[in-house]
Amino acid sequence: MTVSIFDTVELHNGVKIPAFGLGVYKVEDGQQIEETIQTALDLGYRLIDTASFYQNEEGVGRAIRNSSIPREELFITTKVWNSEQGYENTLKAFDESMDRLGLDYLDLYLVHWPVKGKYLDTWRALEQLYREGRVKAIGVSNFKIHHLQDLLSHGKEKPVINQVELHPLLSQVELRNFCQEHDIKVEAWSPLSRGRFLDEPVLGKIAQHHAKTPAQVILKWHLQNQIIPIPKSVTPSRLKENAELFDFKLDQREMEEINGLNKDQRFGADPDHIDF
C-alpha cells in the first residue's frame, strides 16, 4: 500500500516510478509552469508528466534546472504527438523534446495516441531510443486492449505503462485487468475528471467520514487500485490537498461504493476515433 508521496512503483523493466505525480496539460509555459512545478516539488511531488503537444516542455526543463532536487530523484515523462509519429519522425520529435527540456536522458517516453497505421513504427522508434539508453522506460497512452495486443504481437519491447483517461465514472476495469495480466502499469490522466462529479453524494459521505475532500477520496481510490494518478492543478492549495492522501485508508465497502459510480463515461476522445 502507498504510504507516502515518496513511494514508488516498480515497472517491469526494474525502473521505479513515483506512485503519484503532477500532470501539466494546459499549464502555461513560462512563469505559471515554473511556479507550479516548484510548489509541487516542495510538497514532495517527484513525477512530472508533460508532452510536446502541451507546449510547455521548456518551462518544465527550466523548473527542473532551478530546483535543488537532484535530477536522479525526479521522474520526467513526455510524449510524441500524433503529427510527429512514424519511425524517423518520432526520433526527430524526441530530439526536439529533449532540446526543449534540456535533459540528458528521459525517464519515460510515451506514444500519445494510437495513430492508425503509424503507432507500430512509432513504437519501433521508442524501442530504438530505449536500446540506446536515452530513455529509461517506454510506454503508451490512450491505448485500448486491441491496440496493446497489436503492440505485444509486433513489438520487441513491452510497454511499461498505459496512461489513459480513468476516474470513477470511467473505471476501465477490463483494460486494467488486461494490463495487470501483462505487467503493464496503469496511469490515470484526468483522475478527477476535471472536477465534474465532486458533488456526488457517495463521495461526499465517504469524504466526511474521513475528514477529507471528495477529490482526496477519488485520488485515494486510484492509489488503492494500484493506479498512478497524475492530477493537474496550478493552485498551490489544491496541489497540497491532492498530495495529502497518506493518512487515511478507504475500506472495502467504500471502495465498492466508488466502483459503483462507473458509467463508462468518457470526457476525452475515444482512442478508436481520433482525428487530431
From TrEMBL:
Pfam families: Aldo_ket_red. Residues 31-262 form the NADP-dependent oxidoreductase domain. Gene3D superfamilies: NADP-dependent oxidoreductase domain. InterPro entries: AKR, Aldo/ket_reductase_CS, NAD(P)_OxRdtase_dom_sf, NADP_OxRdtase_dom. It comes from the Bacteria. Keywords: NADP, Oxidoreductase. Transmembrane segments: none annotated. The keyword Oxidoreductase applies. Belongs to the aldo/keto reductase family. This is Aldo/keto reductase. It comes from Mesobacillus jeotgali.
